[in-house]
Amino acid sequence: MRLSRYPIFTTKEIPRTTELISHQLMLKAGLIRNVSSGIYSYLPMGYRVLNKVISIVKEEMNKIGAEQVLLPFIQPADLWKRSNRWKNYGEELLRFQDRKGGWFVLSPTHEELITQLVKELVTSYKRLPLVLYQIQIKFRDEMRPRGGVIRSREFLMKDAYSFSQNEKEMKEIYQQMRSAYERIFSRCHLKYKLVEAESGSIGGNLSHEFIALSPMGEDKIVECDNCGYLAKLEMANYSSAKDNDNEEIKPIKEVPTPGVKTIKDLSEFLHYRTSKLLKTLFYQTDKGLIGAVIRGDHQVNEEKLKKLVGAKKIQLAGEDAVKKETGIDVGFIGPVGINSQLIVDTTVMEGKNFVAGSNQKDLHFLNVNPGRDFQPWLVGNIRFPSSEDRCPRCGHSLSIRRGIEVGHLFQLGKLYSHALKARFLNKEGREDYFIMGCYGIGISRLPATIIEQNYDGDGIIWPIEVAPFEVVVIPTNEKTVDTSEEIYLNLQRAGLEVLLDDRDVSVGVKFKDSDLIGIPFKVILGNTWLKEKKAEIKNRKNGKIEKVKLDQVPKKIMELITYAK
Hints:
This protein is of the alpha+beta class. The protein folds into 3 domains: 21-187 and 413-451, 2-Layer Sandwich (BirA Bifunctional Protein, domain 2); 253-380, YbaK/aminoacyl-tRNA synthetase-associated domain (YbaK protein); 469-564, Anticodon-binding domain (Rossmann fold, 3-Layer(aba) Sandwich), CATH 3.40.50. Strands 3, 7, 8, 9, 10, 11, 12, 21 and 24 form a 9-stranded mixed sheet that branches. A 5-stranded mixed sheet has the order 16-14-15-17-20. The longest helix has 21 residues, at 167-187.
């Protein structure tokens, strides 16, 4: 491909709001273009990368016997109502009516549709197990899209679904899929961790996530460097650090705190550690308003709180809702005298003589003690781990690391087959429900995730298997144009994906564009060719330059590509 004819759209101008390096570089390198909030067009160079990722995914899916299908992007509301997700999925589900008044959704996922399809096609255990997958556009109406294509509203996803006659069969497929995912992410040269995770809006009994490590990732994992314990932050177990305070329980008393509302301000005003302060937060659930009581140095884990309460939905209650329910200004609320159901964290129950809001403006209580001054409705672990907590297995310190979710595996069981009455005849001739699994990969976020782990000050450093082109030939002056053309044609004949930068621009621009886009190898025809009759091959990843005779260039490039894989 000659760059004089290939549409390349590198730029220096990017919006100030782009936070992630992958977002910045994808815009600068001309891989994507923003259309609307969380919606992007893929330009030719970016689409080549996307197709490389798709090819890897398809190869590994096909290896384990999964068959590809294509399901509609638009789904009838009836399916979602039958699974009860029409109401429960949340505002991310975009609902709309057609001209005849029928309700539909823009698909964020396809569990209902695939279950209905298999229900209509498979009636006997003899057709099981069955694994189907697709690569399809999805849409989730994210409130705050961020990170470019990492958290967008419209995205491309590989979703696979398995249908089995029993748990054993489903678990075998689950392991096969896990191994396939490991090969996919390894081929993309990603550093990742596999962690147990929440099933979320998909549902099911067990799920695991593949988290690509990145300091800018939205997801957090807890890891023990000593024994290897790993878990998603929301799912993590840990041993709480005990308060070694041997003080006696003291009488409760009031203290004026004019205008002091936040934990930080209260700590500074009273000269108390934040671990000796209490926070009382109210949440609206499908079971009513509840209060969560935790220490001031901790954060509420809403997933654990929801599970402990047995709620399906949970969200932080607004100030108006809290004041309407309690009659108290937010900032001075405490657990003493509260009539709402209080869920108290275990670390609060283990402590004593806390500072808490008095439920009166500009006033707090000192020496508040659980059991004496307020009674919990439920007690449990409802917080995120902190730096003081220890590994639940070995007692070693824990590290909290950030990452990006790139893949998710779910053991769905009979959740959707029950909801949609999807049954088959088993070996005994009786009707039984399909045992299902669900397996997703965020295709469109993979290129951005790869960039987050592979870049430098000059631009992207693509792993060879996903690079838009493998090599670029760069003539540096008029005397090397004909030789560059010859090398370009020889590389093409060798079956390589090669660019010839024959544009009428400066050599500096050619080098900068090549580095920005991330082409793995450059073949440079300059002074070395004129003096020594050798081409220079430069490795984008390590900067190493090798001098090679003209007839050896294709062979050398092939060797470097093989080694890079």
